[in-house]
Write a structure and sequence with these properties.
This protein is mainly alpha-helical and 218 residues long. It is built from 8 helices and 2 strands, in the order E-E-H-H-H-H-H-H-H-H. It has a two-stranded antiparallel ribbon with strand order 1-2. Strand 1 and strand 2 form a beta hairpin. Helix 2 packs antiparallel against helix 6, helix 4 runs antiparallel to helix 5 and helix 5 packs antiparallel against helix 8. The chain starts with a strand and ends in a 6-residue tail after the last helix.
């Protein structure tokens, strides 16, 4: 019959070992099981400490990708003004000449920043497509319920702000890539930071997938 069982972790030098004290009258088999259990626990301690150490040393990507994601989100926030101006002036949402201008300007800027223009192109296209999707959704909203008491800003002024943000985004991309490529694990933080009205999950996925492919120039 077991009358008492007590166990404690004892440190000797830098090596922990588990010592158990067992007082039994009639079950040596149980004593052996307890000894083996304690030995197994001691063997797991180094793995536990190593896991804790690695967890402490693993960098958090939230602080790295969030500033970039916020800039992408800020750029998309201008699409309400763009859509409103186009609606008031009976202009089409899609402007292929303007899109080509934006793409070429971005590739040129990317090259100056040490980015591979070929890998930047799809990311710029993804931003353009997301912007158009947001604009179309605003038009659909206004067809159902016009927004009273709001006036869009001048398209020329808005495009100047967008152009500056586009440069800021690429600068942030170049800065972030110096610490290593973007990884799928950063997706939740990117999705959380890019949260503009009328932007869908599918739009965010296209943006993030294109972002993952960007590389520094060789």
């Amino acid at each position: 019959m077991i009358h008492e069982f007590a166990s404690a972790i004892v440190w000797k030098g830098r090596t922990p070992f588990r010592r158990s004290t067992s007082i039994t009258n009639e079950d040596p088999g149980l004593n052996m099981v307890l000894i083996r259990l304690n030995q197994a626990m001691v063997g797991l301690l180094p793995l536990l400490f190593a896991s804790l150490f690695l967890a402490a040393q693993t960098p958090s990507f939230a602080a790295e990708i969030t500033p970039l994601a916020e800039k992408v989100s800020h750029r998309l926030s201008y699409m309400k003004d763009v859509a409103g101006y186009k609606a008031q002036n009976h202009l089409p949402i899609e402007d292929l000449a303007q899109e080509a201008k934006v793409l070429e300007s971005a590739k040129s800027e990317a090259e100056k920043l040490g980015l591979d223009p070929g890998t930047v192109g799809p990311f710029i296209v993804a931003q353009i497509n997301a912007a158009k999707a947001v604009e179309y959704r605003y038009l659909a909203d206004w067809l159902a319920q016009p927004e009273a008491g709001w006036q869009p800003r001048s398209l020329d002024r808005v495009r100047q702000d967008i152009a500056q943000l586009s440069k800021d985004i690429l600068q942030q991309v170049a800065q972030d890539l110096k610490s290593g490529p973007f990884t799928p694990s950063e997706r939740p933080n990117f999705f959380k930071a890019v949260h503009e009205h009328n932007l869908k999950e599918a739009d965010k996925q296209q943006l993030f997938s294109a972002l993952l492919a960007i590389r520094l120039a060789k």
